[in-house]
């Protein structure tokens, strides 16, 4: 469609005489098209000049403006020789066509800015190619030939700022960083190569920015490079990378959000940007960037003389639409800062453009939809005003007019009433300013004078805070000083503020650093509330948080309080996280961080009553299964790279004990065995092949190391392999044939009991299914053996006696050890399952399955089953709360008020003494049922042990 049929707005001529002169250049043209040209020329001296110079070309270009722009680009790509003149002509024509399309509403803002950016990219490409060709022809780039021109001999130009984001304004400087790939040159050629690239850079910038009689192409700014006062205009990628790794600052991180390779060796440029990913995008939420950005705003305003613009009513006269209050830079800072905060965790937030960034942040729930929509609307309006200010006289200005006459010119250019335009400017600038100030200075900040008082506020505790590592930097002290009143106010509202203060003191003392976390708290007050909730309930969990503060990221980085997603979603989320890491060690570290966050989430959900003890036990088991299956895949992949793929059918990791029964606590070890099937293979086929047995033994050891190694983020889990055949004396990995033989002919009764809770966690599905089928067959076969019931009764009774002799209950609230308590109940339940011959489905071998099996066997009646279930349920609830609150059983005399309330809520008891009495009563009842069951089972064939 031609230009005329897409016109949606028409500028008014501020000066009639130039407007008529421009109209006269296009005889036969009338209607809206003529009005657009005359209105533009009648308000903008710059566009009037371009219209007069390019009138013949413009008439044809307006018939199909997209084709007109494409023709300009085609002509530039075909250039030979000095491109200076053709580039300037191309810039004039493109500026005229794009300007008219913008003024007439033919193209939206995004099309306008992208077209200007595309022209700048092509201009850099043409100018750089000419400059590099000159150096190669003179032999000044060692080893480079004409064929290397395609990649500009390894030199790349990075587009920064608005050019990098495809957002160039109408009369924009272009911010560039020029680098070369030093790996393409020998060590003794580096100096000469750098000198050649420096000359090429200077020649390129001269072609682009020199203002000749034909004008200029683009004003070029190279000052965003590392340390521009002392570094050459083109530097090696290695030197740039070293700078950013050691000295890079927050503003440079923000700049690289928009960076992209625009000319030269694009692949080398992309590789360089990839190496900077850890510098730009931090692994953890980076709320310290907020204060950095805020300070940057203030420094820019001070440097530009905008300090008076910080408070009071807005004055439109001369107001800077880019850097002033409520301006374009404010919206960009808002967007980029949020991207810096979260983009390390979520690559989906690493878009370059401001509008795309706002949209992405809203979709990811980092900002409200209405805030994103409002700021996007204001941004488009601000940019259009900016373009019109620059179109008037081709000036790189962002200042609104300083006289009423010039304001009237701007209003005419925008086809607006002057008063209405001023009102809208004030409204939009004020709206943006309000949003940004709330972002950088959250509401509800308290002064030091508002610190709560009271006898609970131990001055000695507070006096030692400045000595803690977290408060060793001035910046951390400044942020914490702002936080402290709110933290103390929240602590004062807990049921026992003295205890909460001491627990918070323990948390603060354990923090290795404070700036990042305090910044996180300042921007997210709900995290302070959660922390106070934790320190007031579970001081041990607060201590854990001080060592693993990064888990707070998870609270605000997603649906932290949403329902449990399930094992499938966990696996998918973990796979996506690991896929972003470059090597094995990085994936092990990422795995630890991911597990730590989900583990914390389960604990918080339990602590706040969003799930009960039984549900949290299943969630901990789902988490462990997701971690194990992902880790096993990584271990196998890494091991195979050295020793070849697993020989035969591979190996399966079996979860035993609480993991097998899907009943883990917050502090559970993992009981595992590994079973492999060589399938007739003698060994692996790799660079360093291994025989079958050592292959799978070392593979299993690698898995254990992956789980237990102390790395960044700590350990994943402690591992217990004693349930494998022959215990600690046997090999860490067992062949399927040996496992079958051992379980069929040599296994002890307790080993058969353990199999009632075994299930495949990781490894080939077909092998796991075969092992499960064998497990079910074995349980049925054992149950069918003569005297199984009496034998199991005898063995269970002997095991109970050994346990009693080895370990006494650890206090009245020990849920595990003692007659009728959890271990006792689990033993008899497993015996009932084994004696019944009906293996439960994997992961279902819990107490309920054992109770049903015992009733079928006649070991107890329904009432006895209920007694076992009641005891097991209460013991489990007490155990789950104890493991969340700390190590070891609960001590009734040492429980804080918050912990006490949590325990009572979870167990349904009215007070701790009542809980102790109820646990004892239920355990006694269960012990009686167990004793009776053993007697019944043993007497079934008259063989009482």
From TrEMBL:
<keyword id="KW-0548">Nucleotidyltransferase</keyword>
<dbReference type="Pfam" id="PF03710">
    <property type="entry name" value="GlnE"/>
</dbReference>
<protein>
    <submittedName>
        <fullName>Glutamine-synthetase adenylyltransferase</fullName>
    </submittedName>
</protein>
<dbReference type="InterPro" id="IPR043519">
    <property type="entry name" value="NT_sf"/>
</dbReference>
<keyword id="KW-0460">Magnesium</keyword>
<feature type="domain" description="Glutamate-ammonia ligase adenylyltransferase repeated">
    <location>
        <begin position="529"/>
        <end position="772"/>
    </location>
</feature>
<dbReference type="InterPro" id="IPR013546">
    <property type="entry name" value="PII_UdlTrfase/GS_AdlTrfase"/>
</dbReference>
<dbReference type="InterPro" id="IPR023057">
    <property type="entry name" value="GlnE"/>
</dbReference>
<keyword id="KW-0808">Transferase</keyword>
<keyword id="KW-0547">Nucleotide-binding</keyword>
<feature type="domain" description="Glutamate-ammonia ligase adenylyltransferase repeated">
    <location>
        <begin position="84"/>
        <end position="274"/>
    </location>
</feature>
<feature type="domain" description="PII-uridylyltransferase/Glutamine-synthetase adenylyltransferase">
    <location>
        <begin position="295"/>
        <end position="439"/>
    </location>
</feature>
<dbReference type="InterPro" id="IPR005190">
    <property type="entry name" value="GlnE_rpt_dom"/>
</dbReference>
<dbReference type="GO" id="GO:0016779">
    <property type="term" value="F:nucleotidyltransferase activity"/>
</dbReference>
<dbReference type="Pfam" id="PF08335">
    <property type="entry name" value="GlnD_UR_UTase"/>
</dbReference>
<keyword id="KW-0067">ATP-binding</keyword>
<keyword id="KW-0511">Multifunctional enzyme</keyword>
